[in-house]
Write a structure and sequence with these properties.
3-stranded mixed β-sheet; 36% helix; 6-stranded parallel β-sheet; alpha/beta
């Protein structure tokens, strides 16, 4: 496997930061997935991320294992969303810890958090408590259901949001049970929408000097990405049925069995369907009104599937891909993850990065997909071990002495 190689851990990776967000500093009070996804994106784009973790325990995902990264005690889950961050241990439940957070905020542009609604206010760290003291602060809150509404106090979990947000009703075979997506998309989308909100708020602050709070609810973001299926419901008042791997608005656009496996066939319009029929001995279908237009094929999708299945079973997956690509007809194999990471295009796009971990081991992480021609993402620091940068940040940024830091550690504050 070919991959990018990133620089090893430095004592002060922020000073060598590059990227469009260089010079910004984020106080990261997030954990698990939605929040860390947001802050890792900011870090990849050049911001300095100070990740606050509970002493001794750290981010919950440090314990989401196995699997572990080989030859380390780090969970693969944690490593996936925590590069380009400094780990600082602070107990924010204690007054001394809250005081440290306030001192750190004097040097930060952004606070990101995904505590339950009202939880940080108990520690004097809610947005309404901070905005007068830090009027330029951009404060991003990511919760299950947002800061308002009847569900606001509830905790949010990915599978719960996928269920409540409707995507499970759309996913799975028609006669099967509802299915969630195989990766935690509700968390991931909330984190990315949070990042978008932060970037918009930064532009506003650059123009006005004014900070603000960003209220991201996982259920809101889930409803937002229902996309064409959500619009199908709004247009008809009818719940869209589960269609397995078929497209609700295009046919044929689905998986078909081949001689040796499966393939995705994506016929996006009528001229493409005509090319397909003429190339593979199905010209008679073009004279059949049930196949003549995409709208008629959608209305007769089972007939389309039944008619084309024996045709698709006549060749191997590789033979179909070669033939279809030559005709510029959308197609692709259904890859395992082993095949994904071995794919020459994925490798050519540098979608795996190798970083030198604090343990001395090289760890592989999935790269940032944003390709910027002038200010590309950078990989300055691998996911940190717990508390790796506590002394550096408290001593360097806040000017605390070794004795002061040692005293805090003795009292369990850091």
């Amino acid at each position: 496997m070919t991959m990018q190689h990133a620089t090893g851990p430095g004592s002060d990776f922020a000073t060598s930061a590059t990227g469009p967000l260089q010079g910004l500093r984020v106080l990261d009070l997030t954990r698990v997935l939605a929040g860390p996804t947001c802050t890792q994106m900011l870090g990849d784009l050049g911001a300095e991320i100070i990740k606050i973790e509970r002493p001794e325990a750290g981010d919950d995902t440090r314990g989401f294992a196995p699997p572990f990264i080989p030859n380390t005690r780090e969970s693969a889950y944690f490593v996936g969303v925590n590069r380009n961050k400094k780990s600082v241990t602070v107990d924010i439940a204690k007054p001394e810890g809250q005081a440290l957070i306030l001192r750190l905020l004097e040097h930060c542009d952004i606070l990101a958090e995904n505590f339950k609604v009202g939880a940080l206010a108990k520690y004097g760290l809610g947005y309404q408590q901070l905005k007068a003291r830090f009027p330029r602060l951009i404060y991003c809150s990511i919760t299950g259901f947002g800061q308002t509404g009847p569900y606001a106090p509830r905790p949010g979990y990915d599978a719960l949001i996928q269920a409540m947000g409707g995507v499970m009703s759309l996913t799975g075979e028609p006669a099967g049970s509802p299915q969630k997506v195989g990766v935690p998309v509700a968390d991931l989308f909330a984190g990315l929408y949070g990042c978008i909100g932060i970037l918009a708020a930064l532009n506003h602050r650059n123009a006005t000097g004014e900070g603000q709070q960003i209220d991201i609810g996982m259920l809101d973001t889930h409803v937002a990405w229902l996309a064409n299926q959500g619009m199908n419901y709004l247009a008809t008042g009818q719940n869209p049925p589960r269609l397995g791997n078929q497209h609700p608005n295009i046919a044929p656009y689905q998986e078909f069995p081949t001689k040796d496996g499966y393939i995705i066939l994506a016929v996006g319009n009528d001229p493409t369907f005509e090319r397909f029929c003429k190339a593979f001995g199905q010209e008679a279908l073009l004279a059949d009104p049930r196949f003549a237009t995409n709208a008629s094929r959608v209305q007769n999708r089972q007939l389309v599937t039944d008619t084309l299945t024996p045709v698709m079973q006549g060749r191997t997956t590789a033979e179909w891909i070669e033939a279809l690509e030559a005709l510029k007809i959308g197609c692709g194999p259904i890859n395992t993850l082993e095949q994904v990471f071995a794919d020459p295009h994925v490798q050519a796009r540098d979608m795996v990065v190798e970083m030198q971990h604090a343990s001395g081991e090289a760890v592989k992480v999935i790269a940032n997909p944003v390709k910027l021609s002038a200010t590309p993402p950078s990989y300055r620091s691998p996911p940190p071990v717990l508390g790796q940068h506590t002394d550096e940040v408290l001593g360097g940024l806040l000017g605390m002495t070794e004795a002061e830091i040692s005293g805090l550690r003795h009292k369990g504050i850091t």
